[in-house]
Amino acid sequence: MEKLKGALVVGFLRLFALLPWRAVQAVGVAIGWLMWKLPNRSRDVVRINLAGCFPELTAPQREALVGQCLCDTGKTLTESACAWIWPAHKTHGLIKQVEGLPVLQAALDSGKGVVLISSHLGNWEVLLQYVCSLCKPIILYRPIKMQAVDQLLVKQRMQLGNSLAPSTKEGILSLIKTVRKGGVAGIAADPEPSLSSGVFVPFFGVPALTSKFVPSLVQGRKAEAVFMHALRLDDGSGYRVVIEAAPEALYGEDIEAAVGALNQGIEKQVRQAPSQYMWNMKRFKKRPAGEAKWY
Known about the structure:
The chain is an alpha/beta fold and about 300 residues long. Helices cover about 45% and strands about 20% of the residues.
């Protein structure tokens, strides 16, 4: 039964990827609009997160942003479905603008390992294909339970000769070794870690449990760190890739300050397109001692 379900999902993705680009986006908007108008947990989480992170907005402004966020989430889902099927060169065609490419090139030319820092902003799948066209990084990822879909994604994400590291002990050790040998690693740095693996530092002014892993990789400038995201263009024609160097504090010995710099770097890019961040993620699930739960 599990194999049949997987085959059906993969078959649907292949059919969906045949749609014209504007139809793909229209389906994404429709999904997001329904998520906004119908009662569901994702909408509740977005509202809670935006109320905490954007207190300066009026209630009507925040609710409008809720709708924009969910529509962008829907578009990211449907556009990613295409990237899971298309050949890499077709996905590359979605990249219309690149800002900060010399920053990435300087890091790659440094002779050190490079850590590419991203998050749940914009489209990770499009960004991945673009990055893999420039270098051959090892990408940290979380395997999907449905085997047929996981196999499809692994194949797609490795089509340009890069490698993947599952978020297991063995996978993480493999990524660390790659960076220490001067290789390139790509990491989405915003998932909430365990309490022992993170510290609470501000994210949009709110204490957020954030992983110490990236700062530990680059501490003392043992490797170069670069922030990267693929942000959807306003006209829907594709994406612009935004690349920025990490602040000096990210390399420091003070781990709390370094993790804080990590969040600041992500927040800076999120503020360029706040509706494109995955605000339906329970980013603030764990709270400092004595603070009430958010969700």
